[in-house]
Task: structure prediction
Amino acid sequence: MGIQITPSILNADLSRLADEVARIPSADWVHVDVMDNHFVPNLTLGLPVVEALVRHASQPIDAHLMIEDADRWAPAYAEAGCGSVTFHAEAARAPVRLAREIRAQGARASMALKPATPIEPYEALLAELDMVLVMTVEPGFGGQKFLDLCLPKIRTARELMRKHGVETWLQVDGGVSLETIERCAEAGADVFVAGSAVYSADDPDAMVAALRERAESVAG
Ligand code: DX5
Ligand code: ZN
Result:
């Protein structure tokens, strides 16, 4: 799998979700940020809206769950038809069991790490995961500044994946733009979430193409 661009609809016009998703036909996935006002200080949308998006989007849904009690709620997002379900390492009590449950429902299982959470303690879990998400801002809001301090973790995650010979995708989320995407790709990321960069552009789909081109120029 090469470079993939997964626009976040967090900064889109939430009253017109299906139309907003239709503006990014060349995106590989649609990234949907579920926030519960407990794990993060913000509240967005939940399962009924995600179910509606699964029915109406032409791309698969990449659900990013910023919620407490991920063990209880995450499998339902897989069952609802999301192509990928990401839970936070900090919110999962039994990440191995949870990843297996998500996979058993037919979705890709992914685990996210907040900026201060290291990857090393999770090395043995890599084979259980289809993707690792390294957050490059503190989760909760779109439009924040990219945190360069997360770049070494992206590198470490890529090295560990190579060491274990796994095909795990490596996603970055937060402050990804034309200015920062090259740094992420150089460090080893291959799946890129971009929210405000895409939806504040006059032509969101052209921005998806531009981001892809820039990341591919690094990945060679
Ligand atoms: C933040 C979310 C992101 C957010 C990214 O907690 O997980 O997906 O929408 O937005 P930008 O690209 O604007 O940082
Ligand atoms: Zn996200």
User: Anything to note?
Assistant: The CA atoms of residues 6 and 100 lie 23 Å apart. The pocket of zinc ion (ligand 2) is lined by residues 8, 31, 33, 64, 173, 193 (CB under 6 Å).
